[in-house]
Design goal:
Layout (H helix, E strand, L loop, with lengths): L1 E4 L5 H12 L3 E6 L15 E5 L17 E4 L10 H16 L6 E7 L8 H13 L5 E7 L2 E2 L4 H12 L2 E4 L6 E2 L2 E2 H11 L8 E5 L5 E2 H11 L5 E4 L5 H11 L4 H11 L9 H6 L6 H13 L32 E8 L3 H9 L11 H13 L20 E2 L2 E7 L4 E6 L5 E10 L2 E10 L1 H27 L1
Parallel strand pairs: 1-2, 1-4, 2-3, 4-5, 5-6, 6-11, 7-10, 8-13
Antiparallel strand pairs: 9-12, 14-19, 15-16, 16-17, 17-18, 18-19
Helix pairs in contact: 1-5, 2-3, 4-6, 6-10, 7-8
């Protein structure tokens, strides 16, 4: 069967792809920016990649008409004022075009929406579900709450809070009940639902057997890690204060923190276990999902992470728009150094950032990250998904990978910290020469003031960094 997979670069989409290929399907991967999609080589014979933006109807003509099934895995966690309209328009455009194809079954992954009063984001999920259900195809919605898995935004917040804070003074919403689910079970439900007549034109809640408060989930993680943690709940923390609390303590972006806080005040508990019985699936417990996730992190086999999505940064960009480094009106710090070992230098470049740091004056990088966080930027807390592998679109601290080709010996990064301009950092191996280039395109007088004010620090940082990488 030919399956359309939207959101193929997303947290769930990346994990769905290999499972669908294992089932023998031919997959059409819908991506908004083709440069951000680097599928495993062993899957390439079974996939087709098309660049489609469902807010631009002209691009939809790239979708094949002979598809048999489709997954709608597109969500917005932005805090833009019109994001609800954007989500509805995307769903309408999807439905209108998919109705022209041979598609038999469409599956949508949504959130649990059983409460009368919902957050704006959950209301938007519900509106999208209603819109998609108007199509001529068979339609199924799977509704999930907190997803537990390596790289999921919710799990990373739990992890950050417990790992960093022995004692927590927390908002009242930590007493809210929810029913989490392991990401492995989400994938299992999504794949087994496809073309199953018993699921047609219905919606189902999916969750693990445990109903827990967010406080219990934090303490459960602490127990799994062998840590002693104290949590005190106070009623005076407003949603805004709660959002700032998450933003400064965890690696989440502020706009994602706002969306999560507003949704976490709503109970997300499954209505029944009907789909478990239909598909013969017994979801694992919260503790089991934690054990699996911690094992995955330890073994560095994280398939996807929310940190690599554009929502984790401050810009909603296409990589192609920034992949050519400008020269006109720019300040440039370019340095060359002969390498003692090309392979070792390349390995250092591909391991830069995250836990490995930036090789020189790490305290200055941390200060810069802290200043960025205070000014509303991403800071250094995103780290990186894998310690040695890089692909276009990946996040490295407050940088975004624009281009990564180890054989060619070139890595190009784009700055996502708060700046009065745009900044690029490039590493390139030419014969036995390491070329390190920092480029800054200022915006207005403040951009120029910023550059000249940090030139002395660049002299320290960039000189030390190239020396460490080259030797």
């Amino acid at each position: 069967m030919k399956i359309l997979l939207t959101g193929a670069t997303g947290y769930i989409g990346k994990r769905m792809l290999p499972e669908l290929v294992k089932m023998g399907h031919q997959i059409v991967c819908c991506v908004r920016d083709i440069q951000r999609f680097t599928p495993p080589k062993e899957l390439k014979d079974n996939i087709e990649i098309i660049e489609v933006d469902f807010l631009k109807t002209k691009t939809l003509s790239k979708i094949p008409l002979d598809i048999d099934g489709a997954y709608y895995l597109m969500h917005s966690m932005s805090n833009e004022k019109n994001y609800e309209d954007l989500e509805i328009n995307s769903a309408k455009n999807f439905r209108n075009f998919i109705d022209k194809t041979n598609v038999k079954h469409v599956i949508y992954l949504s959130g649990i929406i059983n409460e009368d009063k919902l957050s704006k984001h959950l209301n938007s999920r519900k509106a999208v579900e209603i819109e998609l259900s108007k199509g001529k195809y068979q339609f199924t919605t799977l509704r999930a709450g907190i997803i537990i898995g390596s790289g999921s935004a919710s799990f990373e917040i739990i992890r950050d809070l417990v790992e960093k804070l022995p004692v927590m003074i927390t908002p009242k919403w930590l007493e809210t009940k929810c029913q989490p689910i392991a990401v492995s079970d989400v994938i299992l439900f999504l794949t087994k639902t496809l073309f199953n007549p018993s699921t047609f034109n219905k919606n189902f809640d999916i969750g693990c057997p445990d109903i827990l408060s967010y406080k219990s989930m934090l303490l459960g993680y602490a127990k799994a890690r062998g840590m002693k943690r104290k949590i005190f709940i106070v009623p005076i923390m407003t949603p805004r204060l709660s959002s700032y609390w998450l933003y400064f303590v965890t690696s989440t972006s502020y706009k994602l923190a706002v969306a999560l806080v507003n949704s976490m005040k709503i109970e997300v508990i499954c209505r029944n276990k009907d789909l478990n019985e239909i598909l013969g699936i017994n979801p694992i417990t919260y503790n089991a999902s934690l054990a699996n996730t911690l094992k995955t992190i330890k073994n560095d086999v994280i398939i996807s992470s929310w940190k690599d999505s554009l929502i984790s940064g401050r810009l909603n960009i296409n990589l192609a728009d920034f992949s050519e480094v400008p020269t006109h009106g720019c300040f440039v710090d370019k340095r060359r150094k002969k390498t003692t070992s090309i392979d070792q230098s390349l390995n250092k470049i591909w391991a830069i950032g995250g836990n490995n740091g930036w090789y020189y004056a790490s305290w200055l990088w941390r200060i810069r990250g802290f200043i960025d966080k205070l000014s509303g930027g991403v800071g250094l807390r995103r780290g990186r998904t894998h310690p040695t592998l890089l692909n276009a679109g990946d996040a490295i601290d407050f940088w975004r990978v624009l281009y990564a080709n180890k054989k060619e010996g070139r890595l190009l990064l784009f700055a996502e910290m708060k700046l009065p301009g745009d900044a690029w950092l490039e590493f390139k191996i030419n014969n036995d020469q390491l070329i390190q280039t920092a480029t800054f395109r200022p915006k207005g007088i403040w951009g120029r003031v910023y550059w000249y004010s940090v030139v002395p620090l660049h002299g320290i940082i960039f000189k030390g960094m190239i020396n460490k990488i080259a030797h």
